[in-house]
Amino acid sequence: MISVLVVDDSAVIRRLVTDVLSSDPGIQVVGTAANGKIALEKIERLNPDLITLDVEMPVLDGVSTVRQLRRTRPKLPVIMFSTLTSVGADATLAALAAGASDYVTKPANAGSFAESLTSVREQLLPRIHALCAKPLRRVLAPKPAPTKRPIAAPAQLEPIRAVVIASSTGGPEALRTVLTNLPGSLPVPVLVVQHMPPVFTDMLAKRIDSSSQLRVAEAKNGEPLQPGRVYIAPGDQHLEVTRVAGQLRTKLHDGPKENHCRPAADVLFRSASSTYGGGVLGVVLTGMGQDGKRGSEALVAGGARVIVQDEQTSVVWGMPGVVAEAGLAEAVLPIGEVANYITAHVTRRGVAPAAEVSTWN
């Protein structure tokens, strides 16, 4: 059983979340709390496997609660509850930066209680199971330790003309780590799909842009792709690369969801493969599910390269894990080494021989 502590100042939301969690036979609600101060006291006594935490609360808000919690329990999974507003998005991103694991959005007030239950259930239950999953894969099919090889940019491969990145659970902080460590002189565009709703993607872009040498912004439809620019797919819109009058541009649309996602990494990766051929570097970072796997297959089939974040530094090793285990990744890297790898391969200069990456045989 996964034990959960539900923290929210609203009695209605506490009841809603408790009802949703109680419907899952693998989850047990061991307590509730109306603010962060009470929650911190109950965590010590109840020792839950995971907590759901409201962003805006009296006495001690969600962001402050996460900061205090991480001093004593750095690995306890925390799922934030946020509103779909710019204030809620900014506070949620601050909580993720402070160490929260993931977030879900509160249902709109206009919906019925049954609709709210469905919305929360669809968002919350998969996240809880993903964050609390046991590593059965190691028991059932142990893998050999990855071998080490120096980072180098093989001369026989097509030069990289674009970088495409996919991320989900844990992605905002993983993206910040990667994008703020890339040089402002990066000679190619970077396109990103992060599974987030509208408003959140714009706030994420602005947060990363404030500390990155690259120019980071939410993508707009029809923009020409320029080197040193990062284009983040807006929430609820697919992002593609398209050729218009000989020039490569962004294309946004609200086509069908893929992997239950819009934006979806598979959509971006396929379009990048179609337009750039082998001149793409695909990067799959932390996230649950399989989005990015089929797109990675298209990239590799077209002669492009794909790398993924390793399990140890991923919040959830779903998306990068399925790509690595399908044999599509040429390197499996800690998050702190991803930017260095991208820079080395895009500039084709390589790095010092001492630098190494893990690769699956």
The span between the termini is 36 Å
Uncertain segments are 136-155, 349-361
Number of helices: 12
**Relative strand content:** 15-25%
Average pLDDT score = 89
Give, in spatial order, the strands making up the sheet with the most strands: 9-10-8-7-13-14-15
Structural class: alpha/beta
CATH superfamily grouping of the largest domain: Methylesterase CheB, C-terminal domain
Query: What is the C-level CATH assignment of the largest domain?
Result: Alpha Beta
**Integer tally of domains:** 2
Strand and helix order: EHEHEHEHEHHEEHEHEEEEHEHEHEHE
* Global shape: elongated
Rg, rounded, reads 21 Å
> Tell me about the biggest sheet?
7 strands, parallel
Q: What would CATH call the architecture of the largest domain?
A: 3-Layer(aba) Sandwich
